[in-house]
Amino acid sequence: MTEITGDAERIVAALAAGGGQLDPYPLYAELHELGQASALTSGKLPYAAAAYGYRAVDQIMRDATFEVHDALRLEPMSPTWREHPVLVTLMNSMMFSNGDRHGRMRALFRKVFTPRRVQEMEPDVIAIAAELLDRIELLGAGGAEVDYMAEFAYLLPARVVGRLLGLPDDDISWFRAQVDVINDWLDFRRKGPEVLAAADQAAADITTYYLDLIAQRRAKPEGDLISDLTRAVADGTHQVTDLELVGNLLVLFNASFSTTIHLFGNALPLLLGSSDGRAQLLKDPAAYVEEVLRYDTPAHVFIRLASRDTEFLGVPLKEGQLVAVLTGAANRDPRRFAEPDRFDPDRPDNQPISFGAGAHYCLGAALARTEAQLALPMVVERFPQLALGSEPVRTDQFILRGYKSLPVTVSSLVTAGGSADASG
Ligand code: HEM
């Protein structure tokens, strides 16, 4: 534990404040000078400690003493939580469960969401990417700017997870709107009553939608994940209620596109900002994607709660106290990654902690990697003239780091005389 707790407080407060994630990396570098983890004792932040070293982050995520928020913890804090559909739905998911309940739900999803299923999704990923690139070519004809975030980085993972679950493509934009409202409420800073009311409505609508779809697939199974889930529950090996299915489907859909969108987004400026970016990506897409996940990861902060009085790397913690787990910082830990602020797809033993570790390790890591490894090369191969356009707009969240919009051009500017401008 560092003695200079005041510094850690200042840095974590700066990260959590508006704009803190616009450029967190100098702040992470300062944290690494303090060690692996620090107590945050002023009481001004909701967290009693922060874990930011790679070893500390890995250790805390694997340690069952540290739990995620669940219904049991919520009860004393918010006895009326059952009146809020958004809380009920989330608390019914593996992301907000611990121990046996978590294991029971996760086992069902692992049974049907297998590496083989991810492999079977590969033709879908390629087909969806090709379709989106066709549209971008049309939109970008004559040098017009296209928003890569809206037209590709979001649509690709959203359509892929829609295909996985068996949701019609036409329903995806409705889903995104609902999920965005819930994400607004989930982000630590936006918790006003109107934000909660909107999130409640969105969760209630999604629940109705999914319950209906589950009933349809139960009556007439198809080749999608929801059909497989209902079949696995029906054969009696997995006891998961319909409302638990809904909670997990909600977090799965949400967790899949709201993170992968930023893997695609954060990769692009890196690719285009370096003279050998394209060649490096095409040489070894897997290594390239892994380095994007390390260097500019989509999800930077997770929360753990001490399930009893304990000590973590010298930091004393009382039962119920929160620890901010900074995965984005861990990926830049100089003790784990040589020259951590250098983007280097060739770095040896590159194992970023971007998908977490331990019991809650990302269920969709293989799918996210597959999407990026297949689709990013398609983007650069399709558009040799791809270039960044006008000023991008960044998101301003504490947890997720990425772009709201990222204008690009994909073809040369057509001048008034009709000839292509080679510089465009
Ligand atoms: C680049 C993209 C992604 C990143 C960076 C990411 C990151 C993470 C992380 C760090 C966790 C652990 C959370 C914790 O320990 O509290 C997690 C959990 C989870 N992720 Fe992902 N994820 C990504 C894509 C996906 C995709 C594509 C899916 C689904 C298709 C998905 C589904 C989930 C689920 C269901 C959990 C909860 C697992 C549990 O609580 O047992 N994620 N993700």
From TrEMBL:
Domain of life: Bacteria
UniProt keyword annotations, A-Z: Heme, Iron, Metal-binding, Monooxygenase, Oxidoreductase
InterPro entries: Cyt_P450 (IPR001128), Cyt_P450_B (IPR002397), Cyt_P450_CS (IPR017972), Cyt_P450_sf (IPR036396)
One term of GO molecular function: iron ion binding
Pfam families linked to this entry: p450
Entry similarity comment: Belongs to the cytochrome P450 family.
PANTHER family: CYTOCHROME P450 YJIB-RELATED, P450, PUTATIVE (EUROFUNG)-RELATED
Protein name according to UniProt: Cytochrome P450
Organism: Kribbella voronezhensis
